[in-house]
Amino acid sequence: MMQEVLRLQNLQKSFGSVRALKNASLTLREGEVVALLGDNGAGKSTLIKAISGVFPVDRGDIYVRGEKVSIRSTRDAMDLGIETIHQDTSLAPDLSIARNLFLGREPVNFGWLGVFAPLDLAKLRKAASALLKRVGISKKLDADALVSTLSGGERQSIAISRAMQFAAKVIILDEPTNNLGVEETHGVLRFVKEVRDAGHSVLLITHNIHHVFQVADRIIVMRRGEIVAEQTVADTDLLTVESIITGADMSALLKEARAK
Amino acid sequence: MVQAVMTIAAEDDALGARGRSRLLRSPQFSSFVILIVLLAVFAVADANFLSPLNISNMMAFLPELGIIALGMTLLLTAGEFDLSVGAVFGLAPVVVMLLVQNGGVDIGVALLAGLMLCIAIGAINGLIVTKIGISSFLVTLSMLLVVRGAALYITQGFPLKSWDQPGFFVTLLAGSFNIGSFRFYTSLWWFIGLSLFAIYILRYAKLGNWISAIGSNRNAAVARGVPADSVKIWLFIATSVLAGLAGMISAFRISAASPVAGTGYELEVIAMVVVGGTALTGGRGTILGTIVGALMLRAIRNGIVLIGVPGLAYNIFVGLIILAMLILHALLQKNAARG
């Protein structure tokens, strides 16, 4: 069994009278892709926001590599090796791709100058170009192009490649293939596998069950703020997962499907 | 000379029309073309416009507003602005001169006190804007009243006695020198030096990357661990200090400090910055554009008087020209978005 990287224990979070997270527990191990599924309002977003430091939970514990941690800010999460890419990608549109990729962790010359240190523009551009090539973005992008000139899909790809370049232990992808073209989607899914093979863990939030079966090792299903099912992909199939998500009794349909 | 300027302007226009490169489409470039055209028009309309005396005059005033505009550009790029700069421009020299004239304090010590005062004003602006979360418009508007009121109260509304004792600091801030028949002040060196530093910061330094990112998408910057609040606080401080420095330069040049000096400068400075192509909404800033903007507003104010527009009417023209510039930038921006 691979080593545990992230463990959530009995997380609870309420917004006013709405109990967004009732009692969520899950474990993420080294080098696996776990898909987090659920209908709208199931609590997926609340869960990942709690892990990525957007807001604190009311109750419950978070462990990173077996050690109990407290995540109070996005910076805390990043320092613990948890990188999150939210649906609305977190890029600065007026900056170039290269500058966005290294925002907050810029390569500089004369580091002793602190914030006045000059950016190592050559290194910045080179690293950015290499990264862009790896993501497999169909259209050739110029590392110096402003993010505001990119499509939504291109922006998503940039944000994902940024999280990957810093070798985060846990990468949380919130609907990463939304707004992506077919080729871009395949590029991203291929990337997710690459990251897993390099030993990192991925928590993938998505609506697209087909993508889940392409890349995930395990599936966790949430409904009304609770985790209602946890299965390895090898032990389940698309229809079963769909029925768990909706909570509908699809056993008749399933029987029929399997009989075929 | 005039012919040459006009030829260059015409060529630049032609290039701009078919130019596809980023430089030619950039807002600072279009501002630059318009600056050249304006200079040409004034030069043709009145031969005195390009006379050594007139150019010397323009160059004497230019740094005083230009230096403040450099700080304002960085601040606007980070998504904030400062309306208290004109008041600080007035208060800093008043405090320094009062200390020297009435308190018998050494000029160096008095200047240090003035500097500390500017730092304090900038820090208060920055802390209230970032930590309490009130818009910089409201915070610095209130600060404008406080600072201007303080200047009026401590002087009882009267300009200070003229003070004209040459020395190291006076030479440093307001010394003059001649090149041929042109007379320049050391303030021009300050402006050039600070401009180069500001260009370096915004385009090449790590700090500039942070400033643009904060103004472009603050949440994204914060999510990447950029200390957005600290950066903004320091930019407020820098802007205040530059306003105070400009005030000292002006006061030493005319050997007098007045509590109403710098009235209305805040809007003039913001006009210079946005005319140069910096976005009022943050994220996009250009120091070169600001230098062009500062030159342009100075040339307009000077040229309009020279060509005989009645003094009381000249703000009409200044306002119209600024408006035209902003419309042009907006159209270019739209065009770029479509392309």
CATH fold-level name of chain B: ABC transporter involved in vitamin B12 uptake, BtuC
> Class by helix and strand content of chain A?
alpha/beta
Q: Briefly note the CATH topology name of the domain at 4-91 and 168-259 in chain A.
A: Rossmann fold
Order of helices and strands of chain B: HHHHHHHHEEHHHHHHH
- What separation lies between the terminal Cα atoms of chain A? 36 Å
Structural class of chain B: mainly alpha
Number of strands of chain B: 2
Order of strands, widest sheet of chain A: 6-7-8-3-9-10
List the main descriptive attributes of the protein structure presented here.
heterodimer; A: 260 residues; alpha/beta; Rossmann fold; six-stranded mixed beta sheet; four-stranded antiparallel beta sheet; 10 strands; 25% strand; globular; B: 339 residues; mainly alpha; ABC transporter involved in vitamin B12 uptake, BtuC; two-stranded antiparallel sheet; 75% helix; 2% strand; disordered N terminus
Blueprint (SSEs and pairs):
The complex is a heterodimer of chains A (260) and B (339).
Chain A: E1 4-15, E2 18-29, E3 33-38, H1 44-51, E4 59-64, E5 67-69, H2 74-79, E6 82-85, H3 97-101, H4 121-135, H5 152-165, E7 170-174, H6 182-197, E8 201-205, H7 209-215, E9 218-223, E10 226-232, H8 238-246, H9 251-259
Parallel strand pairs in A: 3-8, 3-9, 6-7, 7-8
Antiparallel strand pairs in A: 1-2, 1-4, 4-5, 9-10
Chain B: H1 2-18, H2 22-25, H3 27-45, H4 52-77, H5 85-101, H6 107-132, H7 136-155, H8 168-174, E1 176-179, E2 182-185, H9 187-204, H10 206-216, H11 218-223, H12 228-254, H13 265-275, H14 287-306, H15 314-338
Antiparallel strand pairs in B: 1-2
Helix pairs in contact in B: 1-3, 3-14, 3-15, 4-9, 4-10, 4-12, 4-13, 4-14, 5-6, 5-7, 5-12, 6-7, 6-12, 9-10, 13-14, 14-15
Description:
The complex is a heterodimer of chains A (260) and B (339). In chain A, 34% of the residues lie in helices and 25% in strands. By secondary structure, chain A is α/β, with parallel strands linked by helices. In chain A, strands 6-7-8-3-9-10 form a six-stranded mixed beta sheet, sandwiched between helices. Chain A is globular. Chain A has a domain at 4-91 and 168-259: 3-Layer(aba) Sandwich (Rossmann fold). Chain B has a single domain, classed as Orthogonal Bundle (ABC transporter involved in vitamin B12 uptake, BtuC). Chain B is built from 15 helices and two strands. In chain B, helix 5 packs antiparallel against helix 6 and helix 14 runs antiparallel to helix 15. The radius of gyration of chain B is 20 Å and the shape is globular. The chains are: A alpha/beta (260), B mainly alpha (339). The interface between A and B is medium-sized, with 24 and 26 residues.
